[in-house]
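User: I'm putting together notes for a lab meeting next week and I want to include a structural view of one of the chains we've been expressing. I don't have a solved structure, so I'd like a prediction I can at least talk through. The sequence is below, exactly as it appears in our construct file.
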Amino acid sequence: DQAAFVGHSAGGLAALVASSLVEVEAYVSLDGVDAADVGVDAAPSVAEPSLFLHSDASACNADANGTAWQALVTGDSWLVSVTDSSHCDYESNTDYLCTLVCGAEDATRQQTIQDYADAWVIHNTRGGAEDWIRGATATADQSAGRIDW
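Assistant: Thanks for the context. Below is the predicted structure for the 149-residue chain, given as structure tokens.
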């Protein structure tokens, strides 16, 4: 009976729009990309706890759209930058075209992204994972330079 929407790139936009229309327990953007401000328009209607995992602005997400969306959602939200990540790190497995245009993938960064996305969904659907959500694990990862928020 519980659900979360998670999406990468344009899928992050689709999941954001879906979260604005349907009540779910959580939303996760994996370096989501906006188009024609559809996400900016939808974000104020998102009341679900929302996690915005993102890379620095790049050719594949020049506007780092998760930052704008995070500022507009009305529910609890957290913006997490995964250090040195590329747009391709947010999809696993990625392909040659993505890495050619958007940057190399890295298994360690991909695992970090997956861990935080999983923790956010677990935390908001059945409870637990507090160490990952601004807790001891997140603080250690920030101190080690793996993430920033």
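A couple of points you could mention at the meeting. The CA atoms of residues 20 and 46 lie 5 Å apart. Strands lie at 4-8, 26-30, 50-54, 77-82, 147-148.

User: Perfect, that's what I needed.
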